[in-house]
Amino acid sequence: MKIKGKKKILNTNFVLFLLGRMISDIGNSVQMMIMPLYIIDAGGSAATIGLFSFLSLLPALIIYPFAGVIGDRMNRKMIMVVTDLISAGVILALGLFSYWGFMRISLLLIVQAVISLLNGLFEPATRGMLPQLVDKEELTQSNSTVASMRSISILLGPVIGTVLYANFGITIVFLINGISFLLSGASEMMIQYVHVKRQRTEGMKGIVNDLLEGIQFIMKNKIIRNMCYFFLVIYFVLQPIFSVILPLFFKTNLQYSDTQYGYLQTIIILGALLGSVVVGAWFGKEGQITKPFTIGSGILLGTMLMFSILLFPKSLAALGNDTILYLVLLAGVLSLFSFANIFISVPMQTYIQSETPDEYMSRVFSLVSMISRGGMPLGALVYGIVLEWVEMHWTVLMAVLLMIVICNVFISLLIKDYKMQRSY
Questions:
Q1: I want to staple 231 with a disulfide (CB 3.0 to 4.6 A). Which of 36, 152, 347, 372 is the partner?
Q2: Is 258 exposed, middle or buried (0-12, 13-18, 19+ CB in 10 A)?
Q3: φ/ψ (deg, to 5) at 8
């Protein structure tokens, strides 16, 4: 809980919060970046990568509503610590199986489903806890800082991951990730946080009532409700481009090394890091959402169109599928994409935090995440299946054209609703 009164020069709780997230994000990004490459090396196909991505997301989405209720009823700090420690144990066990030579793609898929479930419990508690650690007027800046630290973590992941995987194999990747979760849990234990117990109806009736309250809150706020619908569609369309299209295209159509794939991922995350810094500096004190969203959407659509062009065989023939020029162009376009994504996501997250009372916070974030990310696992499966029949460049081009329509409709609704809300 925030301590009111004289403002501290250093918010120790927020620093520990950032440190815990950054450590686990580094380990997780090391593993998640390598998994598509490992699956392909182990004999998997586009459909296998799509299934892995599907299982990385679906269990979290299923548990999200209940995780929100738990996050509003129980100690959010303890939820974070316990889920991190269990994740550490599961991943370290996977490392032992790999070391003993028992590693199978089927085992990897099962473990990934368990990790996704734990992440589904962790995320709503984390989102609900942050507004209690910083002042309301600092939310945009704090969310920008969290996004920056996450970007740095994910930035380090591809570099570390490719070096470890290329030189030592998959076992060391699991070991590093497991240790990172242990260190993250230790950092979170030191956060000074006071859990405020509230009167709740016990049993299944109480759980259902809590969920209904969260749903009613979202449905009454037109902006939050439309955000859910918007992100439901764009996650369905865009997320599989990074989890399915990019690794498959890199492995099958380009002639670069795994290390160069790591460099590409690093540059992509640099775009997100730059975006989070710019959003924090530009909009940190405004609380504005329409302007950064419009800017981000414009950049997003432009870069996705350029990405689809780079996938066409004529582009590969003209630029070369093994040249530095092509790699630089691809990295530049994808880094702008991640830059644009931050311009959209950070102001939206800040708006939800500022408009939601603390007693609803975890439920609202869990429901928003469940609805908005609901398209991700299905999108991964659909892309995996479609790519068996339709070439990559046509698939991505159709996705871009769909996004142009979606973004224009949502921007019109957002500006209208935001002006109406501020006029009251």
A1: 372
A2: middle
A3: -80, 145
DSSP 190: T
Tokens of 390: 């339709």
Q: What tokens does 202 get?
A: 């016990």
| Distances 331 to 170, 305, 335, 417 between C-alpha atoms, Å | 25, 14, 6, 36
- Whether 138 and 150 have beta carbons less than 8 Å apart is answered as no
Burial per residue of 363-401, b for 16 or more beta-carbon CB atoms within 10 angstroms, e otherwise: bbbbbbbbbbbbbbbbbbbbbbebbeeeebbebbbebbe
H or E element at residue 419 = helix 392-423
pLDDT value of residue 7: 45
Q: Give residue for tokens 């459909």.
A: 47
* pLDDT, averaged in runs of 10, over the chain (424 residues): 47 82 75 76 74 79 80 81 89 88 83 85 78 74 77 72 80 85 86 68 69 83 84 82 79 78 78 80 66 84 90 89 88 88 80 77 77 75 82 87 86 78 64
pLDDT reported for residue 192: 80
Predicted pLDDT of residue 200: 60
Alpha helix ranges (H) inside 74-138:
76-99, 105-129
Q: Is 2 left (phi over 0), alpha (psi -120 to 50) or beta?
A: beta
pLDDT score of 420: 75
Distance CA 358, CA 2 (A): 12
Both tokens assigned to 214: 């969260």
This prediction's pTM: 0.65
Cα 174 to the center of its chain, rounded Å: 20
Instruction: Return the pLDDT at 362.
Output: 76
The alpha helices in 203-360, defined as continuous H runs, are 203-220, 222-240, 246-252, 258-283, 290-311, 313-319, 324-355
CA distance 132 to 390: 48
Dihedral (CA of 187, 190, 192, 196) sign: positive
State both tokens at 413: 């609704």
CA neighbor of 36 nearest in space, from 266, 380, 370, 300: 380
Q: Which one, of 77, 63, 127, 79, lies nearest residue 356 by Cα?
A: 127
Distance CA 45, CA 52 (A): 11
Question: Of 15, 184, 162, which is closest to residue 91 (Cα–Cα)?
Answer: 184
pLDDT score at 329 = 92
In whole angstroms, what is the distance from residue 14 CA to residue 141 CA?
A: 12
